[in-house]
Amino acid sequence: MKHVAMVYDPAQSQHILRDDHVFRPHRLQLTYELLDDYGAFDGSRLITPRIADESDIVTFHTPEYIDLVRDLSRGKERLDAPSHNISEYGDNPPYEGMYEAAALVVGASLTAADLVTGGDIDVAFNISGGLHHAGPNRASGFCIFNDAVIAIMSLLERGLRIAYVDIDAHHGDGVQRAFYDSDRVLTISLHESGRYLFPGTGDTTEIGNGEGKGYSVNIPFFPNTDDETYLWAFREIVPPLVKKFDPDVLVTQLGCDSHYLDPLTDISLTTAGYTEVIKEFRNLSPKWMAIGGGGYDMEAVVRLWTLAYGAMLDRDWPNEIPDAYRERYGIKRLRDTAQPTITDEMRAGALHFAKQRVSEVKRAIFPIHKLKLV
């Protein structure tokens, strides 16, 4: 039986990027409440995160960028903010308290990393994390500080090997870029093809440089990819590579925007398909650090992360939402009650695209790791 912990503090869900912004941290509080109503913390630990110090953040981000974020957080006008991709009406708006909010996300991921390496915890989940787009001196895709990179770097400092698997519908470009030259971090991203979705990267030809050649892996999907095709591609690539790499810690980014109800993306996973992916992770490493990610249909996010934490605990929550929660928020069922509308032609096109991409990955990556092309 695995020992599991959730890293969470209500402060992680209190900030607002902008009144009309699609990224709403309140989803974290709703997830916590549903898990609590299911009794999830009777059989697992609930850990309060620490706030990251600047000395933590500067391991990846530049001092100049950190100072900029701090100034904007305090309401100071900075004319150079747009050059760092921060602007009032863009994806990454400045807001009061943004530095503290971003530092808490980083601190929560560092707390999760400490838990899986420093005691009896086997699995730690920071639902606020997974802000995988941010660069050293640039915000991107609603991400100010890249908690995933900073947490992985903290694990590398301990001499550990890390496998990072990202199932957000958007390519994990910031994490890939940070470790593109390293053979100590295996990054695998499964995402909607950059031909159709931000950030426009993540092609199968992006395989790493130098010592890192073969350690950056990308599986792009065609719009309307369903559970069956997604799971087939996942199982063809992820388990063989991760098991061969044999990481000390598996880090997974569990973005929920691959769900068919998400308003920003076109992957068509259901709660059933998403949960099957999470179950696959349980067998890939004895130590597992999970972080959140995207997800812009509030109800879908809450249901998916509740199911994910259940899979980590090897518990199967009842489909009926607990009475008190249902009365507060109106959500009636944990699992999907409908299916995505996908025609046979769309399904065949997505499968053909996936087969081509899987073949490309195997030809480029598997020989480097001495895996057979089966």
Explain what you see:
- Helix content is 37%, strand content 10%.
- Strand 7 (249-253), helix 8 (271-281) and strand 8 form a beta-alpha-beta unit.
- Strands 2-1-3-8-7-4-5-6 form an eight-stranded parallel sheet, with helices on both faces.
- The protein is globular, with a radius of gyration of 19 Å.
- It is an alpha/beta fold.
- It starts with a strand and ends in a 9-residue tail after the last helix.
- The chain contains eleven helices and eight strands.
- 51% of the residues are buried.
General shape: globular
Strand content: 5-15%
Strand order of the largest sheet: 2-1-3-8-7-4-5-6
Low-confidence stretches: none
In N-to-C order, the SSE pattern is EHEHHHEHEHEEHEHEHHH
The overall strand count is: 8
Query: DSSP helix count?
Result: 11
Roughly how much helix do the residues carry, as a percent range? Answer: 25-40%
SS-derived structural category: alpha/beta
End-to-end separation in angstroms reads 33 Å
Radius of gyration: 19 Å
Average per-residue pLDDT, rounded, comes to: 97
Tell me about the largest β-sheet: 8 strands, parallel
How do the helices and strands line up, and which of them pair or pack?
Layout: E1 4-7, H1 26-37, E2 45-47, H2 54-57, H3 63-73, H4 98-118, E3 123-126, H5 147-156, E4 162-166, H6 173-178, E5 185-192, E6 216-221, H7 227-245, E7 249-253, H8 271-281, E8 288-291, H9 298-313, H10 323-329, H11 344-365
